[in-house]
User: What shape does this take?
Amino acid sequence: MIQEGRQFMKSNWPSGQMADTDQLKGVPMPPFENEWDENALIALPDPKAANLKKRDIVQVLEERVSRRKLGAGSISLNDLSFLLWASAGMREIAGGRIFRLVPSAGSRHPFESFFYADKVEGLKPGLYRYIAQKNAVVPVSFKEGLKEELTKCIKNQWFGCAVAIFWVFNAYRCEWRYTTHSHKVSTIDVGHIGQNAYLGAEALGIGCCTIGAYLQEIDELLGVDGDNEFCVYIGVFGPYEGSGGAGPGWTANKA
Assistant: This one.
């Protein structure tokens, strides 16, 4: 198993041109985002109008840290808009390609942003999905007890957050171009998303901690099939206590 993991980390790129791709076969390109109900859209404020506490990129880079003592209060809809935009926002669609604020192999951008809004001013607590093309969100579920079930699936790493974002991989969106080579580059892509989320949170002056330890049963709670779409990464965000660092049961670190 260790050797399989190491092999996954290595380049699997062919020496020649990939020929057996749906793109080269003329199969239509999958959509940039999953479809949504236009009537269910909830518009978000302009993310560029967010009240940033830090605008100096050097300060943001130096002070970025995983913060696990969250739960000091709510975040505004403006804050949420900026977080979603920073980590998954769209700049433009041009030449049949989508350009976002994060890099992605071949501009495939195969991730959807689901989030549970627990303490977001102006949003009913529940599960939503971000629609980057509209800078808006759509409700997914207001199921009773959903927060508690999600908390168990992320091994109780909720940390009292105001909002938890779940990055869901849409496999075919990248496989259409890169087939079996898509999974490593997509794993790199979600790291870009996580880092932008950290920097966005630090600029807002709110805490962030990304999570890779979770139970895959979370897919059912998010309403995705677990095969063509599945969760691969999570981030929790909210006002933080003190200077951040570790919460109960955690060793302080600068992760």
Summary: The helical segments are 2-9, 57-63, 77-88, 146-153, 171-178, 182-204, 218-222. The two ends are 26 Å apart (CA to CA). Confidence is low (pLDDT under 50) at residues 243-253. The first helix runs from residue 2 to 9.
